[in-house]
Amino acid sequence: MRYKSVFIDLDDTLWDTFHNNKESLEEVFVEYRLNRHYASFEAFFALYSPNNELLWSKYRNGEIDRNTLIYERFAYMLRPMGISSREEVLAFNHDFLQRTTNKHKLIPGAIELLEYLSSYRYRLFILSNGFREVQHLKMKNSGLLPYFERLVLSEDAGIQKPNKRIFDFALVNTNSRRKESIMIGDSWEADILGAHQAKMDHIWYNPENIPARGFTPLHTIKSLEEVRKLL
Question: Considering the entire predicted model, what is its pTM?
């Protein structure tokens, strides 16, 4: 075996962030009666989603901090309703995050992949930009946690993917060698560009067949089942 350590992104690589978060958002949309302002949940989501993605991109690039991201993603949606106090916005965010931690939907093949990797005694680690207070609970409640030795989070490193320093931090803090490690992730910007910059081998989980930008990734897969052919 060439590799000993496998670093895996959590959100939308193993845990189905898109559908779990959307389901949680619809629940708070109904509970907080946001239809007083928005014609439908889909109308709400059509505005929320691109703004949230923009804020996460700024967070990854160090342009905003965690607190700004948490506040602004919902303040943007609640201000038109006359809700702008920090306390109210953060309460809304807290309710949303609590709901997400109890969602269980995984990317197809996630458990099968982890069973396979575990059977070959790979050391498994999560490498994520997600927030500490929710990532552990998401993994615990969805059955992912027992497969991993450790969660390496951007909050631990003080830097976010794609900065190469978080990959260096992950290697040092898991006692892993770069040449014996590989990264699996869905985000071109965070996971694949980051691993490339850190000179770490990588597998791009790319079910939507998004074009690569700037370089050709080492491996590209459309389903998690394909990892078995590579590891």
Answer: 0.95
